[in-house]
Amino acid sequence: xxxxxxxxxxxxxxxxxxxxxxxxxxxxxxxxxxxxxxxxxxxxxxxxxxxxxxxxxxxxxxxxxxxxxxxxxxxxxxxxxxxxxxxxxxxxxxxxxxxxxxxxxxxxxxxxxxxxxxxxxxxxxxxxxxxxxxxxxxxxxxxxxxxxxxxxxxxxxxxxxxxxxxxxxxxxxxxxxxxxxxx
Length: 183
What we know:
- This protein has a single domain (23-180), classed as Lipocalin, CATH 2.40.128.
- Strands 1, 2, 3, 4, 5, 6, 7, 8, 9, 10 and 13 form an 11-stranded antiparallel β-sheet that branches. It has a two-stranded antiparallel ribbon with strand order 11-12.
- The chain has 183 residues and is mainly beta.
- It contains 1 helix and 13 strands.
């Protein structure tokens, strides 16, 4: 009896080991904001295009490309979307991590300025980190995006007034909703 119980347990464990793990969803495709379900103040362009491989996700929106490594490591690269500006380098820093079938992304656009006197590279305060958690519906036609943001180093002044986190539109939390665009 003990031998049969041991064999059954071994078979059950082998069967569980052979089953495929929950695979990460593929967010690839063209997505359009669902104006009826997204808030009127939703931030950013209404169209997203996502390309995803096993190791990387690229989000194209509003003329910019955000490249996320899906292994959780940070990615930093030059952003040429503003063109060539003297003594000014704009960069993008991205990071992504899986939380089950949801993907949490962080993207920060920031400036590196060359101090004309010292030549030192400086990062001024005020850069916004946008945090978006992406989740596909079961039918893969709806993309829900929980949106928030923060400033790692807030500026002293924002729009001519002393910085106040509570009135900063960059830190607003909301759910954005996109529908898969027809092919």
